[in-house]
């Protein structure tokens, strides 16, 4: 019974990952991250992704703060924030977020404020979706680890 | 650069050339320095090197890379990011070469527009981020061949 739970949870994780790859939300770089996780560093992926969430939310706040300023004109600063966001998104395999950053950067290079605002809304939407899905993935993984631990209790 | 023993070099080269992304155990004690201001890239590059059995240290910008060399440390491989605060990768590479540092320096960046300038500063190799095990193995292959 417990074994079936672990297998079902593993299948749920694989299904969710396949969906995220199919949607282009994640790319093979996410698999590279998973390959770096092992018994010596069992939480590596969630540690890296949590840092990504923390930094991304700071960048999104900065971008919104800049663009909402009535006297905004510092497109160079927008570019710097976007380069950082693109870099970190590429590093964890967040493909769709990265692609929106590319479009956003193009708008900022043209000093196109309306385009930047549209891109920012899309970026916030994509980031939210990514965060929710990755939280879902980590939740299933946690349940799987717990279920596997109950199935194979420590022998003392 | 690398301290190697006869016969053990070939074993390492063939294991690197196989492109196997599983744990490698080089016969020589290769050391590396990761120079990057981004926390995520620091963690990933540190872990990539760890998994390949390479002892490594992480610093946050070009100035810290210079300082660590001035303290007397030396590395077989330096993974140098380009855009960093305080001192960027181009300037740091230039200064390290001017100091006589002959380590393998591989530029790792997303900024392809500055690639030529970065190479001219003294890089031995350049890889686009994100760094993967196979990209790192191709860099290490050059380290051993030049060593």
Automatic annotation (TrEMBL), chain A:
Subcellular location: Cytoplasm, Cytosol; Nucleus
Listed GO MF terms: histidine phosphotransfer kinase activity; protein histidine kinase binding
Listed GO CC annotations: cytosol; nucleus
Protein name listed in UniProt: Histidine-containing phosphotransfer protein
UniProt function note: Functions as a two-component phosphorelay mediators between cytokinin sensor histidine kinases and response regulators (B-type ARRs). Plays an important role in propagating cytokinin signal transduction.
Any one GO biological process: cytokinin-activated signaling pathway
InterPro entries: AHP1-5/YPD1 (IPR045871), HPT_dom_sf (IPR036641), Sig_transdc_His_kin_Hpt_dom (IPR008207)
UniProt entry keywords in alphabetical sequence: Acetylation, Cytokinin signaling pathway, Cytoplasm, Nucleus, Two-component regulatory system
Comment text on domains: Histidine-containing phosphotransfer domain (HPt) contains an active histidine that mediates the phosphotransfer.
Pfam families: Hpt
PROSITE patterns: HPT (PS50894)
Domain HPt positions: 41-137
TrEMBL record, chain B:
UniProt key word S-adenosyl-L-methionine: no
The keyword Phosphoprotein appears for this protein: yes
GO biological process: phosphorelay signal transduction system
Keywords noted in UniProt: Phosphoprotein
PROSITE patterns found in the cross-reference section: RESPONSE_REGULATORY (PS50110)
Highest taxon listed in the record's lineage: Eukaryota
Protein name per the record: Response regulatory domain-containing protein
Annotated organism of origin: Castanea mollissima
Residues carrying 4-aspartylphosphate: 81
Response regulatory domain boundaries: 31-144
UniProt cross-references to InterPro entries, sorted A to Z: CheY-like_superfamily (IPR011006), Sig_transdc_resp-reg_receiver (IPR001789), ST_Response_Regulator (IPR052048)
Short name of one Pfam family: Response_reg
């Amino acid at each position: 019974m417990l074994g079936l739970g672990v297998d079902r949870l593993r299948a749920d994780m694989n299904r969710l990952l396949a969906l995220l790859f199919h949607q282009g939300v994640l790319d093979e770089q996410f698999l590279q991250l998973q390959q770096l996780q092992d018994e010596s560093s069992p939480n590596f992926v969630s540690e890296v992704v949590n840092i990504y969430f923390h930094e991304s939310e700071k960048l999104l706040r900065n971008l919104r703060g800049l663009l909402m300023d009535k006297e905004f004109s510092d497109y160079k600063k927008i570019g710097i924030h976007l380069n950082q966001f693109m870099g970190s998104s590429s590093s964890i395999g967040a493909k769709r977020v990265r692609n929106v950053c590319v479009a956003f950067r193009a708008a900022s290079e043209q000093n196109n404020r309306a385009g930047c605002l549209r891109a920012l809304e899309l970026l916030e939407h994509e980031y939210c979706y990514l965060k929710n899905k990755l939280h879902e993935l980590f939740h299933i993984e946690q349940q799987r680890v717990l279920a596997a631990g109950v199935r194979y209790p420590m022998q003392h | 650069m690398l301290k190697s023993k006869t016969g053990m070099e070939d074993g390492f080269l063939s294991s690197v050339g196989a492109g196997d992304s599983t744990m490698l155990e080089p016969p020589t004690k290769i050391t590396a320095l990761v120079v990057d201001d981004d926390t995520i890239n620091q963690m990933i590059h540190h872990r990539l090197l760890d998994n390949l059995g390479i002892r490594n240290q992480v610093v946050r910008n070009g100035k810290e890379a210079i300082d660590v060399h001035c303290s007397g440390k030396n590395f077989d491989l330096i993974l140098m990011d380009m855009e960093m605060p305080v001192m960027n990768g181009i300037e740091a590479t230039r200064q390290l070469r001017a100091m006589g540092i002959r380590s393998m320096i591989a530029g790792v960046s997303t900024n392809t527009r500055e690639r030529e300038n970065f190479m001219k500063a003294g890089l031995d190799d350049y890889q686009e981020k994100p760094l993967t095990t196979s990209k790192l193995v191709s860099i290490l292959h050059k380290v051993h061949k030049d060593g």
